Amino acid sequence: MDTIKEEILESLFAKAVHEPAYRPEFLQQLLAANVYCVGHTDRNDTAIDIQERHLSTGSNIQLKSWDDDEYTSVLPFFTSLEKMRLAISEEESFICLPAKTLFEMTFGSRLVLNPQSPDASKDFIPDEIDYLLKGEFGTSPENYLIEEDTEILIGQPADYPTFMVEQLTILFATETDVKAAYLAQMFNQRRDEEPSLLIGLELNEGLSKEHVQDLHSKISRVAYDSMQEQGLVDLIHMLDDDQEGVVAYLRDETEPFYVRAQGKKKGFFARLFS
Questions:
Q1: What is the end-to-end Cα distance of the chain in Å, rounded?
Q2: Burial class, 124, CB count within 10 angstroms (exposed 0-12 / middle 13-18 / buried 19+)
Q3: Shortest CA distance to 21 belongs to which of 134, 174, 138?
Q4: What's the pLDDT tens digit per position in 114-140?
Q5: Which of 251, 259, 258, 250 lies closest to 156, judged by CA?
Q6: Does residue 110 contact residue 75 with C-beta atoms inside 8 Å?
Q7: What is the pLDDT of residue 51?
Q8: pLDDT tens column, 6-43
Q9: What is the pLDDT of residues 224-237, one digit of tens each?
């Protein structure tokens, strides 16, 4: 076990509960971490107290599920021995295995991370696990192409989404390919029944399609989780040679809410504990 990595993951988890900006990074770190589950392998030892079992290739294992009022049953798993000891008796055995392996082998089940922890716990439903295994953070944003001249209404939101902007600013500070970000409210009467928030992005050139999709997935997850009320959020790329329409409004009539700072990017530890 690596207690330092476990402490870092749990600290990030605690931040992610209240600040959506940290959720994509927490999920990435969790997927790369080892976790603990209540259960046993096909070894025949008799557990006298809490026993540790490391999963090896070809092992047959059994995981213990818990009854649950909402989901009938859930599978508990834990970020550390300390969190697990809060929830199980000393007579139960457990297994340490990669979180990604756990998600793959239990796919279709509902899991709960760190149940009975006073700091933070989280349910993982099958749809979310499916996204994580695909390297995504939620429903992928839909592309919308305007194929003809369209009149839209654009301005600043009457109720400025301060919390969402704060969380996106934290996220963008960790993404070196985001140069600047702008905000507006847009109403496309041909498409929408109500106005949507619009985030204009200036990105580095030459990014791969996969990297852009990854950015979109993170931004969409943080924006959606940060909104005080459910609504639509549109993303638009602001190219250097695009000086008309919506892009012209964002550049000429607004100030960016985020501009990339010059200098060396903060490391993960510095960002986590700053």
A1: 26
A2: buried
A3: 174
A4: 998 988 899 999 999 999 999 888 765
A5: 250
A6: yes
A7: 47
A8: 999 999 999 999 999 999 999 999 999 999 998 877 65
A9: 999 877 678 899 99
Distance in angstroms (rounded) separating the CA atoms of residues 35 and 172: 29
Closest listed residue to residue 125, CA positions, set 75, 52, 69: 75
pTM comes to: 0.80
- 236-273 pLDDT, tens digit each: 999 877 777 889 999 999 999 999 987 555 555 555 54
Calpha distance 21→14 (Å, rounded): 12
Domain ranges in the chain are 3-133, 153-273
How far is 56 from 245, CA to CA, in rounded Å? Answer: 59
Q: Report the distance separating Cα 270 and Cα 265, nearest Å.
A: 10
Tokens of 60: 């047959």
Residues 153-273, CATH architecture: 2-Layer Sandwich (3.30)
Residue 169: phi and psi, rounded to 5, are -65, -40
Q: Which residue has the tokens 């953070």?
A: 137
Beta strands in the chain (DSSP E): 34-41, 51-54, 61-63, 66-68, 72-78, 93-98, 111-113, 122-124, 153-155, 178-187, 196-203, 233-237, 258-259
Q: Rounded distance, CA 227 to CA 211, Å?
A: 24
